[in-house]
Write a structure and sequence with these properties.
Blueprint lengths: L2 H8 L9 E4 L6 H7 L3 E4 L4 H10 L5 E4 L4 E2 L2 H13 L4 E3 L2 E3 L4 H17 L8 E4 H6 L10 H12 L3 E2 L4 E3 L2 H6 L1 H16 L4 H7 L8
Parallel strand pairs: 1-2, 5-8, 6-9
Antiparallel strand pairs: 3-7, 4-9, 5-7
C-alpha cells in the first residue's frame, strides 16, 4: 500500500483543504487507513474515471488537486501549487514527471513524457492535475471510460485555457515500468495514444490494455 506515503507528503499543506479518497473496492485496508488519517472516503465501482469523478463531485473546494495514490510530492512541489493557487493567474497546471527509480531507461521515459507535453500539450494522470473547479466543470469533468480518462479531460481543458507546467516534478512509483519494462511500457503508451488520436474509442482501447495490479 503506497497511499500512506502520499498522505504524509500532503500533511505539509499549509492552506485549508480536504482530502477525499476514491475507493473502487480495494481489499488491502486502503479505506481504513484513509479514514484513520482524517480523509473522507468515497466508495464507487472500479474504474479510474468513475472514481475520480465521484471524489470530485463530493468535494467542496474552489480548487481541485487530483493525484494517483502511488505518487509522491516533495514540499517544494506542494509549495509551488500553493503559490499558484494564491496568485490565481493560472487555472490549470500539471507537474513534470519523475519516476522513482534509478536507470537510464527511466530517464528516457521521463524525457518521453516531457516531449509529449511539448508536442501535444498532454500530461497523463500520473503527472497530477491542479485545476480550478469552474474550469473542470466547464470541461465536463472526467468521463466514465475504461481508459484515457486523463487524456480526454486534459484535451478538453486545453481547449478552454492554457495548461501551465510546474517546475518541480511529481514522483511516480516505478512499479508499472519495472513490471513491464520501461521500453515496453512507453511503447505501449505511445501505441494507445496513436490509436486514440486515430479515432479509437477509449472503451475499445481498454480491452487491449491490461494494467498492472493496483489499489483501487
Amino acid at each position: 500500500m503506497r497511499l500512506p506515503r502520499l498522505l504524509q507528503d500532503l500533511s505539509s499543506l499549509s492552506i485549508p483543504h480536504e482530502i477525499i479518497i476514491a475507493d473502487g473496492g480495494s481489499t488491502d485496508g486502503t479505506a481504513e487507513v484513509a479514514v484513520a488519517r482524517g480523509c473522507r472516503v468515497v466508495r464507487t465501482a472500479p474504474g479510474r474515471g468513475r472514481q475520480l469523478r465521484a471524489a470530485i463531485d463530493d468535494s467542496q473546494g474552489e480548487w481541485l488537486v487530483v493525484l494517483h495514490a502511488d505518487t509522491r510530492l516533495r514540499p517544494e512541489a506542494l509549495a509551488e501549487a500553493e503559490t499558484t493557487i494564491a496568485r490565481g493567474d493560472v487555472q490549470c497546471a500539471c507537474w513534470p514527471l519523475a519516476i522513482g527509480a534509478a536507470g537510464i531507461w527511466f530517464r528516457w521515459a521521463e524525457w518521453g513524457a516531457a516531449l509529449r507535453w511539448r508536442v501535444f500539450g498532454l500530461a497523463y494522470g500520473d503527472q497530477g492535475l491542479l485545476v480550478r473547479r469552474s474550469l473542470y466543470d466547464a470541461a465536463g469533468g472526467y468521463p466514465d471510460v475504461g481508459i484515457m480518462e486523463d487524456v480526454v479531460l486534459i484535451r478538453r481543458l486545453g481547449r478552454l485555457a492554457p495548461i501551465a507546467r510546474f517546475r518541480e516534478p511529481i514522483i511516480a512509483d516505478a512499479r508499472r515500468w519495472t513490471r513491464e519494462g520501461p521500453v515496453r511500457a512507453s511503447l505501449r503508451n505511445v501505441a494507445l495514444l496513436a490509436f486514440y488520436f486515430a479515432g479509437a474509442a477509449p472503451d475499445r482501447l481498454a480491452r487491449w490494455y491490461t494494467p498492472e495490479p493496483r489499489d483501487r
